[in-house]
Design a protein that fits this description.
184 residues; alpha/beta
Length: 184
């Protein structure tokens, strides 16, 4: 019996490659919910989602959440000016920490999600990340894909050691984050 994972993702420009990969890769049947940041956190906390891409500031408050991929929605200081102008709701909480590389959102799963499901998710994410322009053409940002692609290029999707270190500093700061809803 195949268990179809329920996945919650913040619906915004920065997540477009992930959404495209999950929908289009072909080998990962999933029930995908596109939500605002607060509802994504709530869906995961209430177990209406098995896996979620949640704002990084919310991760410490999610009981049983485990980070499951080396992919995130992130940014690096070199793109600070462009990201500071971004209307992406995942960027808001990071702005005071803009001199650090940071992960705005992380993929988390409940403990019972199987390694095979996580590997299928990882494959779908890679598939979408390898096709950012196609993802934009299949998104709400398709009316001006050139501008959307320029903004999308400012994001960094690898959750590396620098982002992990910066994220721990962010969590240790004690800042409480209430993600904003998607502005559009």
């Amino acid at each position: 019996m195949v268990i179809v994972p329920r996945i919650a993702v913040v619906s915004c420009l920065s997540t477009t490659p992930f959404i495209y990969g999950i929908r289009q890769e072909g080998n990962f049947p999933a029930e995908l919910s596109l939500l605002d940041p607060q509802e994504t956190v709530r869906a995961f906390a209430e177990r209406r989602a098995d896996i979620a891409l949640v704002p990084a500031g919310a991760v410490p408050s999610l009981s049983g959440a485990r980070i499951v991929t080396e992919y995130c929605v992130g940014g690096v200081p070199a793109e600070l000016a462009m990201l500071a102008e971004s209307r992406d709701p995942l960027v808001e909480a990071w702005k005071p920490y803009g001199q650090l590389p940071c992960a705005f959102a992380l993929w988390v799963a409940h403990p019972e999600v199987s390694p095979e499901t996580v590997e299928s998710l990882r494959t779908a994410l890679i598939w979408g990340l390898e096709r950012p322009y196609e993802a934009l053409l299949d998104s709400p940002w398709s009316a001006d894909p050139g501008a959307a692609y320029a903004e999308l290029a400012c994001f960094d999707y690898i959750f590396d050691g620098q982002k992990d270190k910066a994220l721990k500093k962010f969590w240790d700061s004690g800042l409480k984050v209430a993600p904003r809803t998607n502005p559009g």
